[in-house]
Design brief:
Largest sheet: 5 strands, mixed
Structural class: alpha+beta
Strand content: 5-15%
Helix content: 55-70%
Radius of gyration: 43 Å
CATH class of the domain at 240-378: Alpha Beta
CATH topology of the domain at 240-378: Heat Shock Protein 90
Mean pLDDT: 79
């Protein structure tokens, strides 16, 4: 908006100075034209240079621009005594008056420079008056009028700027609220999509294995590998922790003649993010295949150890070896499956080999810094986007346009009232004796004041002026113009007694501000036409009269028309452009928020799941784990229960804890376990991370229960406890170890107690609400 106002000020001043100066030269005596031209032509050239500076501001320092503006008013003021007469007085007043008004927009961000130019203009007018009329004092009325114009223009700028800034703040608040709604909707949509993917893939597979359905498991390995790929597409999956030692224990050695016996030495456990872990696992699997195909030996050494915050894995054989430089570029086993795969997750892989000297492949993952570059920097391919809208018709554009319209209408109304009750009122009172009749002019003044009061009452209440009131008021203003034009002597038209000529346009402008500028231009044309008709009907005017009328029209109506053009540009050009820029910026912020929040959501939800589910899918997918093994089926049952609890997190229910607990119970019941669930006390609110820790020990215990179990939830005013009693718990990996592995990344204060006796186990998880919260669960 500031740039638009600056351009408006320069163009307005330049046009008025050139047109009024040309009319002043035409009205001058032939003997005075050369001298007047020597003053006005440099002023015209200074205006041209100022216009050129709008295109190349880098070429003109501010001091030079200020000097050019000062030169215009000085040269214009000095032309008054040269041309002489009433046309010269009108010309200089119009040119200097418009200039000092325009300076308030050209130098809007530097008000002292604008005020200095306005003071210089006033001084030049005084000097011109003194030189034009030696022996008489300067006319103070034009100076007062000029001061009022400067103050009004500055006040109008401040009003529009304040309302525009308020509109920006309000639009930002509205956009932030809309952004939060879109982010929440996108997060819900994304969560539903990924939960559905897990439900249809890994959850279903693990549940079928836990139930031991069928004897033909030939479908399981490819299905498990597909499920692992589906999980890998979940944002945040790549940062979930897995045990690299457990993954490497699942590397297939092959069968028959292609079997490679691996001598494994691993300093474990090695906990690393699942993305690098799977990249290393797949790379080692490819390297073992290469040993079987090309090395000529059937043994290889597989080692793994920690190095700083990272891990190193090395596979070596004593086979025939090869020259890595001789490998064709079309062979992508090493470059694609080993090297490029590790680079994609922030690690590195090297292959060292020589003919008849064996081969060594080494994978290095460089710690959390390298992982974060891939885990957090890549955007999920299927992140929902906020809906795109037609920017010109968005609520933001309409809101900004409405606030700008309201501000400009208030500014124009202020100009109308101040001008009418200062300059116009004085002229009406002083020249009562020249009107024919005087009561018509007084009535017209009251009518014009009534129009301003009625319109202002709507604007001050923040309401739009109704069409009937608007067009009735416009008709009244045009009637005022006609009455004043035809009840004033023609020779005094646009002169000092003509109080209405310069003020009715402002009243019409605030009434027609929201319409296209051609409507206001038509009103001004009718207004000028009425006055010209009144002058013409009284007799043919002289050239000086026509010049005076032309200068007054340019100085008053031309200025008003240019303001109307500026308002139209702000409303129909700047407001949509601002709305477009705001919408684009808001869309980018919304996308970033959606991406960040969903990354955080998925990391929190899937990080713990990754550590236990991925090794199962890897083992089932590559034959290291058998679905006939009871321990494998029990582990699959535990993971299926954890996934079902995860799905239940997104349900909108009154008691989320009980809902998620029932999801785990249903999985156990699918396996034929009889579960008795009871709840005591009045449920309360529990944070989601606490619910995860409260329920997970129960899920682990139910997953390893063969026949019956009893689950109890006890609520007290400040605590909640969830316990499970399993009568015939299966052996295998310790329940406490499984639960601790699953929840190592969480920080909520949940206490877990376990008691085991023979085949029975009792597990209780409890959480106490922090006293600082001050909220009672009852």
């Amino acid at each position: 908006m500031i740039l638009a106002l600056e351009r408006f000020g320069v163009w307005l001043r330049s046009i008025v100075v050139c047109l009024c100066g040309a009319l002043g030269v035409v009205s001058a005596d032939a003997a005075d034209v050369p001298l007047a031209s020597t003053l006005l032509v440099p002023a015209f050239l200074a205006c041209g240079v100022r216009l050129y500076a709008l295109r190349r501001p880098d070429l003109f320092p501010l001091a030079l621009l200020w000097t050019l503006d000062a030169a215009v008013v000085v040269l214009t003021g000095l032309s008054q005594p040269v041309i002489g007469g009433e046309p010269a007085n009108v010309m200089v007043e119009a040119m200097v008056g418009i200039s000092v008004v325009a300076f308030q927009y050209e130098w809007a961000t530097r008000p002292l420079a604008g005020a200095a130019l306005a003071a210089l203009g006033a001084g030049v007018c005084v000097l011109g008056d003194v030189l034009a009329s030696p022996g008489s004092g300067p006319d103070v009325v034009p100076l007062v009028r000029m001061l009022i114009q400067v103050c009004l223009s500055r006040a109008a700028y401040l009003i529009v700027r304040a309302l525009a800034r308020a509109a920006d703040r309000s639009a930002a608040v509205r956009a932030a609220a809309r952004r939060e709604m879109e982010v929440a909707a996108a997060r819900r949509a994304s969560e539903r999509e990924y939960l559905a993917t897990l439900h249809d893939t890994a959850s279903a597979t693990l549940l079928m294995v836990s139930q031991g359905d069928g004897r033909d498991w030939s479908w399981l390995p490819p299905r498990a590998r597909q499920d692992l790929e589906a999980m890998s597409a979940v944002p945040g999956f790549e940062t979930g922790s897995v045990d690299l030692a457990a993954l490497l224990s699942c590397v297939p050695e092959g069968e028959g003649r292609t079997r490679v016996r691996l001598k494994t030495r691993i300093d474990g456990p090695l906990a690393i993010p699942s993305g690098p872990g799977l990249a290393i696992f797949n790379g080692v699997r490819e390297a073992v295949t290469n040993v079987a195909r090309h090395s000529g030996v059937r043994e290889a050494d597989l080692r793994a150890w920690t190095e700083g915050d990272g891990a190193v894995v090395e596979l070596s054989d004593a086979g025939r070896g090869f020259d890595p430089r001789s490998v064709s570029a079309r062979r992508r086993g090493i470059s694609g499956s080993i090297v490029a795969r590790m680079h994609a997750v922030g690690g590195s892989a090297t292959v060292t080999s020589r003919p008849d000297d064996g081969t060594r492949v080494q994978w290095r993952w460089h710690g959390p810094t390298g992982a974060s570059q891939t885990g957090d920097g890549a955007q999920a391919p299927d992140v929902p986007r906020p809906p795109r809208e037609q920017v010109r018709h968005t609520a933001d554009v309409r809101f900004i346009r409405g606030r700008l319209l309201h501000g400009t209408q208030l500014a124009v109304l202020l100009i109308s009232l101040v001008w009418q009750f200062t300059i116009s009122l004085r002229r009406l009172v002083v020249h009562q004796d020249v009107y024919r009749p005087a009561w018509a002019q007084t009535t017209a003044f009251v009518c014009l004041a009534a129009v301003a009061v009625i319109g202002g009452a709507y604007l001050l209440r923040g309401r739009q002026i109704p069409p009937a009131v608007r067009w009735g008021s416009v008709g009244s203003v045009l009637a005022v113009s006609a009455v004043c034009a035809f009840t004033l002597p023609a020779e005094l038209s646009t002169a000092a007694p003509d109080w209405a000529f310069g003020v009715v346009g402002w009243h019409a402008l605030f009434l027609l501000a929201d319409l296209r500028v051609r409507v206001f231009a038509a009103f001004l044309g009718a207004h000028v036409g009425l006055n010209a008709t009144a002058v013409f009907l009284s007799g043919a005017p002289s050239a000086a009269q026509w010049a005076t009328l032309g200068i007054s029209t340019i100085g008053s109506c031309g200025f008003q028309l240019s303001v109307g053009v500026l308002m139209s540009y702000l409303l129909h050009g700047t407001a949509p452009a601002a709305g477009t820029a705001a919408a684009r910026e808001e869309e980018m912020r919304t996308r970033e928020r959606i991406h960040e929040d969903m990354q955080r959501d998925h990391k929190e939800r899937y990080r713990a799941l990754t550590a236990t589910t991925v090794p199962l899918l890897v083992g089932l997918g590559h034959g290291a784990l058998s679905p006939h093994d009871e321990e494998v089926r029990l582990r699959c049952g535990v993971e299926a229960a954890r996934m079902r609890r995860l799905f239940a997190e997104s349900d909108a229910v009154l008691d989320p804890l009980l809902n998620e607990l029932r999801a785990c119970v249903e999985v156990a019941e699918h396996r034929g376990v009889t579960v008795n669930l009871s709840v005591r006390g009045r449920p309360g609110e529990v944070p989601v991370e606490v619910r995860r820790q409260l329920i997970d020990p129960v899920a682990v215990t139910l997953g390893r229960t063969r026949s019956t179990a009893r689950v109890t939830v006890v609520w007290t005013p400040r605590t909640v406890r969830v316990s499970v009693v399993s009568e015939d718990r299966a052996g295998g990996r310790d329940t406490e170890e499984a639960a601790d592995t699953h929840d190592r990344a969480t920080s909520a204060q949940v206490d877990v107690a376990r008691t085991m006796r023979g085949g029975s186990v009792w597990v209780e998880a409890g959480w106490s609400r922090p006293a600082i919260s001050g909220v009672d669960l009852t």
